[in-house]
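About this split. The held-out portion is used to measure sequence recovery: a designer receives only the structure tokens and must propose an amino acid at every position. Recovery is the fraction of positions where the proposal matches the reference. Here is one held-out target exactly as it appears in the evaluation file.
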């Protein structure tokens, strides 16, 4: 789940409450209709607190839609919204401040829980041939950066590039022919077919992987009514699968040339 919008909204609540308490502003001041400068300023500060809580409530509800249903994370988000309800009904700044403190702790626990579920994406594959190792490791490092930035379509496209480099190298090892130079437009599916013609076996699941990659690539080039957008879990699984597939492709056992 994406926590940054909620964290930013929570920070705005805490800032506005600190500002109000420093100026001895009460929530009731938001209803002040006086026209003098000081009263207007107090009313504005109080309204900023109320608006920041409303914005936080909106972000929490958006996060609830992204939470895994019937999971601990879903329960935590629902609990956060209940705290927010109390903050919206609070009669003083202390109630909102205490609620924001509770939410900060709850959000920290929720982030820790989410991070525990996602294993890091490796950026090295020791078994790769020296000629392509640096190129692929650079791509893997970029895949990790894109994943951390929640650019999941970019993760999928980069996985396609990594597979292309690896399969082209595997074909060169098997035949001595450089398709990257002679036929640079050879697609992933055709690469696998050409490898099979030379008795090189690759992971059978690559076909499904390639289908997903092609979906994203086509939608990136052509305007589609319903563009395919991979989820966080899909992007994460694809990155790990890509790394495992190229590792098996070049290690001494497993998916190598047939005897």
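Reference sequence for scoring:
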């Amino acid at each position: 789940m994406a926590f940054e919008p909620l964290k930013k909204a929570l920070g705005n609540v805490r800032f506005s409450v600190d500002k109000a308490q420093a100026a001895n502003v009460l929530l009731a001041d938001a209803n002040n209709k006086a026209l003098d400068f000081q009263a207007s300023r107090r009313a504005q500060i109080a309204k900023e607190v109320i608006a920041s809580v409303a914005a936080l409530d909106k972000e929490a509800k958006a996060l609830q839609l992204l939470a895994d249903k019937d999971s601990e994370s879903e329960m935590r988000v629902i609990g956060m919204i209940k705290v927010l309800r109390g903050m919206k009904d609070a009669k003083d700044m202390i109630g909102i401040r205490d609620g924001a403190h509770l939410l900060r702790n709850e959000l920290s626990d929720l982030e820790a829980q989410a991070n525990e579920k996602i294993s890091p994406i490796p950026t090295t594959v020791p078994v790769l041939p020296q000629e392509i190792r640096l190129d692929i490791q650079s791509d893997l490092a970029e895949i990790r950066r894109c994943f951390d930035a929640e650019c999941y379509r970019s993760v999928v496209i980069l996985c396609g590039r990594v597979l292309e480099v690896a399969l082209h190298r595997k074909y060169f090892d098997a035949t001595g022919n450089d398709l990257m130079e002679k036929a640079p437009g050879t697609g992933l599916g055709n690469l696998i077919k050409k490898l099979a013609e030379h008795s090189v076996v690759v992971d059978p699941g690559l076909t499904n992987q390639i289908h997903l990659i092609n979906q994203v690539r086509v939608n990136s080039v052509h305007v589609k009514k319903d563009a395919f957008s991979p989820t966080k879990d899909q992007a994460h699984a694809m990155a790990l699968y890509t790394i495992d597939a190229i590792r098996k492709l070049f290690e001494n056992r497993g998916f190598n040339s047939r005897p």
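Annotator remark: Confidence is low (pLDDT under 50) at residues 253-259.
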